[in-house]
Every structure is written in structure tokens, then in C-alpha cells.
Design brief:
By secondary structure, the protein is α/β, with parallel strands linked by helices. It has nine helices and five strands; from the N terminus they run βαβαβαββαααααα. Helix 3 packs across helix 6 and helix 8 packs across helix 9.
């Protein structure tokens, strides 16, 4: 339960793959009198339920997940906590290409190498309802070509690119083995690849995967 003293605080949930950077970001934000970090976690498949329990005002993603996977997780968070804003920290050197139908209603984006003051200011802005997209990211987003893959196909291919087996992908995405194989077959067909490895290469070169 949120106490009366916490009502005016900006409640932040940090999602970061690495404990060291999670701790550093958490310590930075906790120094601000108007902010409280409610949790520091990795990219957990149960993130939406965690957000529903903790009721953050802002969720900050600092991961190397593919954009399709990130947008799906952000949508799940928003479905559970309507008033929650999502801020994604990205590497400006990597093309940011939105999956079909996802160029609108996407989170705020900020490059990873901004100053602490800019990050803190951006958290306040998105918590207040502003949409923020760093101009350097906006330019990079135009570099890639429009992907022909669906969000789910991108999720499956992203996990395959990380070295996950069909069984591991099925477990992480709560799909059957046959469904995962069907997705991979569609990806190979849509990209014109010879096999799964070739599909990963094509997707990376097109900027659909990091």
C-alpha cells in the first residue's frame, strides 16, 4: 500500500539486464527528493504483473532487447497500469526500426550517454505526461528499412539470435514447440533466408535486431 507521504513522489521501476548499472541508476534517482525507486529488476517475463502490483509512474528500460520485444513488454505494462509512462534508454549507434503498426503509441526514448541531469529531467517530463524522443534517436530511426516481420516473429527471432533453442523460446514466450517452429519458418520465408542463421543475419543488417 502507498503511504500518504509517497503520494507526490515519482515512483520509478528500473528494468536493466545488469545488476551494476541497475544499482547505479537506482542510486542516481534516489538522490532526487521527488523520486522513489520501487524496484530494480531484470527483463522479467512477469514484468506487467510486477508493475500492476507496484504501480510505478515511470518504467525505465535499459536493456539490449530487440525493439519489437521492448514494445510488446511496454504495451503489456500499459495494459496493466494505464497511467504508467515508459522510458527506453537506447544506443544511438544502433538503428531503431519500429515494427509495422507500432510507429504510434510507442514509449519515450533517450540515448544511454545523456548526462545524469538530462535523465532526471526526462523522468520528470514523462511522469508529467510528456512524450520524449531524443533527436539523435529520431534521426537513427530513419536509417533502417521497414520490417516485414510481426512483433511476435521479431520476439522469436530475437531470442533465437541470443542462442536460445526452440524449447527455450517456447518456455520463455509461453508457446508450444510447434508454434515456435512455425514462427521461425515464417521468418525464413519472409526474409528470403536460407535458414535461421541467415534470417538472423538479414534481420540484423536491416536494423530489425540489435
Amino acid at each position: 500500500m502507498i503511504s500518504a507521504s509517497e503520494v507526490d513522489l515519482i515512483r520509478v521501476l528500473l528494468v536493466d539486464d545488469f545488476q551494476l548499472t541497475r544499482g547505479a541508476l537506482g542510486a542516481l534517482l534516489e538522490q532526487e527528493a521527488d523520486m522513489m525507486v520501487v524496484a530494480e529488476i531484470g527483463a522479467d517475463p512477469g514484468l506487467a504483473q510486477i508493475a500492476a502490483t507496484l504501480r510505478p509512474d515511470v518504467v525505465i528500460f535499459n536493456t539490449d532487447l530487440a525493439i519489437g520485444h521492448l514494445l510488446s513488454m511496454a504495451a503489456d505494462v500499459h495494459a496493466n497500469v494505464k497511467e504508467c509512462a515508459v522510458l527506453v534508454l537506447v544506443d544511438q549507434r544502433r538503428p531503431l526500426t519500429f515494427p509495422p503498426g507500432r510507429r504510434t503509441g510507442v514509449p519515450s526514448f533517450l540515448v544511454k550517454d545523456v548526462s545524469p541531469d538530462v535523465l532526471v529531467d526526462t523522468v520528470r517530463r514523462v511522469a508529467a505526461g510528456d512524450r520524449v524522443i531524443d533527436e539523435r534517436i529520431a534521426v537513427a530511426a530513419l536509417v533502417g528499412t521497414e520490417t516485414v516481420l510481426t512483433n511476435r516473429e521479431l520476439e522469436v527471432l530475437s531470442l533465437a539470435a541470443e542462442g536460445a533453442s526452440v524449447e527455450e523460446i517456447a518456455a520463455r514466450l509461453y508457446l508450444s514447440l510447434g508454434t515456435v517452429r512455425n514462427y521461425l519458418s515464417k521468418v525464413i520465408m519472409k526474409t528470403g533466408a536460407r535458414n535461421r542463421i541467415d534470417a538472423i543475419r538479414i534481420a540484423r543488417e536491416a536494423g530489425w535486431l540489435v
